[in-house]
Amino acid sequence: MDLPRPVLRYESTDIVNLYCYILDEIVQQLDEDVLDNVKTSLQDIRFLSQHFKDDYLTSEQSIFDKDTFLETTNILKEALDNIDKHSYYKDADYWGLYEAIETFLYGELNPNLDDGEYWGIKGFSLIWEDMCNTYFFRNHKDKICFADTDIRLYGYVNRIRQEEDINRIGNLSRNISDGTHFWKQWLYSIESDISEDNKLSKLKWHELLVIEFDPNPYRLVLTRDLLNNSNVIKHQNFPELDYIGDADLKIMRKFLRPDLVLITGKSRGDYKIEIIDYKDVPIDVYMNPSSPRDFEKCRNDIIKQLTYELALQQTHTISANKFFLPHYYETSLLNSEPGKVSESLNNGIVIFQADFLFLQNQYLQENI
C-alpha cells in the first residue's frame, strides 16, 4: 500500500505489524513474484511481520497452512479487533491499513459488480473455482458443455463479447437476484444434441439443466413437455423462476447451475455426462461430518448434486457425479489427471481429490 506519507520504521504500531505479516504471507505464497516496490521493501516488511508473529502466533501457524489457517485467521481477526479498540488516535494512515486488513480477513465478491474481482480469506472458495475452471478450459475445453463461470483466458477470443471482456469465456448472460438486488451474470453454455419439440433448432445445455415443480400437489414435474409450453409466464427480472399456466396452475421452473458439465463419447455419438461441483472444504465434511453445521452442509450439497443429476437424467446417461476437493499430495501425481477419486458416497457421488499445487501452478501461469 502506498501511503500518503512515510510511516515510522521499527517503531510502528501493532496495526502496521499486522498488515506486514499478512503481506509477508502473501509474498511467500506467490514465491516473491510481486511488484518491484514490494520487493524493495521485503526486508522491512519481514522485520515488522516477525514482530507480529512473536507477539501473537506460534512458529507453526500460517494463513496458508492447511492445518492451521482457520486458527490463524481467527487470531488475526481478534488482534485487529483489539488493536482497533485500543487505538485512540486514528488518522488517514490508520484507516487505510485497517480497511485493507479488514477486507482481506472478511472480504468476498460483491455480487453487484460483475467484474470477477474478489479478495480475502472468505473469497478463497471463489478462487478455487477459478483455479479448477482454468484447468478444465485449458485442457478439456472440447468436452465442456456447461460451466457456471466467466473466467478470463489469455489468448481466447469470445466473438460475442467486446473490448475488455473479449477474452472472457461466458457466452450467455442471465439476470440474477439475491432478493434485493438484480445483476447480470455470464455463463458458458453450448448447443446440445436435443431438439426442441416441433422445431429444427437444438436446445442449449443450460435449457436441459432445469427442474419443474408443481406446488399443488407438491411434486416435481419430470416430463419435458412443459419446456415449450406456450403459457410460460416470464418473471420480469428473474428468469430462473418462470410460471406456467394460469392463476390456478403455476408450475415453477428452476434453472440449475452446477459448476461444470462435461460430455464424454461425443465423437462416437454416445453422449454420456459428467457433473462436477467444486468444493473448498475438508473431505470429512462429506465422509465424517462431526458438527451440526457440517451435517447441514453435507445434506444440502448432496441434495443439490443429485438434483443436477435428476435434471440431466431426463435426456442423457450420467457417467459420473463428482465433488471436486483440493488436496495436498506429498509427491506430484505422474499422470494426466489433476488428482484421483478417493471416496464414493452411498448415493453414487464420488469425491475427487484434486492436486492443489498442480492446479495452483496452472492458475498462476495463466494469471500472473
Structure description:
This protein is of the alpha+beta class. 34% of the residues lie in helices and 22% in strands. The chain has ten helices and 15 strands. The strands form three sheets. Strands 2-3-1-11-12-13-15-14 form an eight-stranded mixed beta sheet. The radius of gyration is 24 Å and the shape is elongated. The two termini are 19 Å apart. The model is unreliable at 1-11, 108-118 and 222-248 (pLDDT under 50).
In short:
It contains 10 helices and 15 strands.
Give, in spatial order, the strands making up the sheet with the most strands. 2-3-1-11-12-13-15-14
Taken in chain order, the helices and strands follow as: HHHHHHEEEEEHEEEEEEEHHEEEH
Q: How would the global form be characterised? A: elongated
**How many β-strand runs?**
15
Calculate Rg over CA atoms: 24 Å
Q: Roughly how many Å apart are the termini? A: 19 Å
Describe the protein's topology:
Blueprint: H1 14-29, H2 36-39, H3 42-56, H4 69-86, H5 92-106, H6 124-139, E1 144-147, E2 172-177, E3 182-189, E4 191-195, E5 202-204, H7 205-208, E6 210-214, E7 219-221, E8 232-233, E9 241-244, E10 251-255, E11 260-264, E12 272-278, H8 284-287, H9 292-313, E13 317-327, E14 339-344, E15 350-355, H10 356-367
Parallel strand pairs: 12-13, 13-15
Antiparallel strand pairs: 1-3, 1-11, 2-3, 4-5, 6-7, 6-10, 8-9, 9-10, 11-12, 14-15
Salient structural properties:
10 helices, 8-stranded mixed β-sheet, 368 residues, alpha+beta, 5-stranded antiparallel β-sheet, elongated
